[in-house]
Structures are given as C-alpha cells and as structure tokens.
Amino acid sequence: MSLNVFCRYCGQQISDTDLVCGHCDSRQNFTEPSRDASRKNYEGVIAFVVCFFFGVFGIHRFIYGKIGTGILMLVTVGGFGIWWLIDLIRIAIGHFTDSRGNRLSLIHDH
C-alpha cells in the first residue's frame, strides 16, 4: 500500500514509492525508518561521551566520518570551545548527523 507524500523540491503530491517526481523530474531520497532504535540511541551516547571529553579536538567528527570539519576543530581547538559546545548540544537533542546523514542522539525517538 503506497501513501501520498509531497515532492521535496516542487511540493506536488506524489506516491511514496515514486523515485522521481512526475512533475519536476527530481529524484526523491526516501529513506526507510530505522528499525533498530536502540542501536541508534547507543551511537548517540557514544558520540556524546566522545564529544564531551575529546570534542575540542574534533575526535567525534573523525569517528563519524566528518574528516574535514574534524581537522578544522583540531586546528581551532573546537572553534575556541564554541563549536564544541554547539556539537554537544546538537548530539543531545538529535540534530547531529554522521557523514552518511544518520542522526545521532541521546534521546530515544520512534
């Protein structure tokens, strides 16, 4: 059974099984919801702990595949502590993603 959703680019209603919008020909990037929420939550805890203790050196960014920004954090000592604090908050509330776009969070979301 397919559901109706909206195109991410033009906003027209399409089926959730359409890979390309029939109105604007834009490729849709639908992702399956994570069925392993406990694994996701575990990764968020690890990311938070690593960020808390070693975040000023960008270690959490290296671990989760964000090498370029990890180097910037290393050179600037966590953006003079500000960038480190922002990353810590983003992980805690679920707005930090790894290099593949997977959200890492302390909170358990369904």
UniProtKB/TrEMBL annotation:
Residue intervals passing through the bilayer: 45-64, 70-93
Localization, UniProt: Membrane
Keyword Iron: no
InterPro entries cross-referenced by the UniProt entry: TM2 (IPR007829), TM2D1-3-like (IPR050932)
Signal peptide: none
Keyword line: Membrane, Transmembrane, Transmembrane helix
Top-level lineage group: Bacteria
Key word Membrane present: yes
TM2 domain ranges (all copies): 45-89
Topology class, membrane: Multi-pass membrane protein
PANTHER family in alphabetical order: BETA-AMYLOID BINDING PROTEIN-RELATED, TM2 DOMAIN-CONTAINING PROTEIN DDB_G0277895-RELATED
Designated name of the protein: TM2 domain-containing protein
Organism encoding this protein: Thalassotalea nanhaiensis
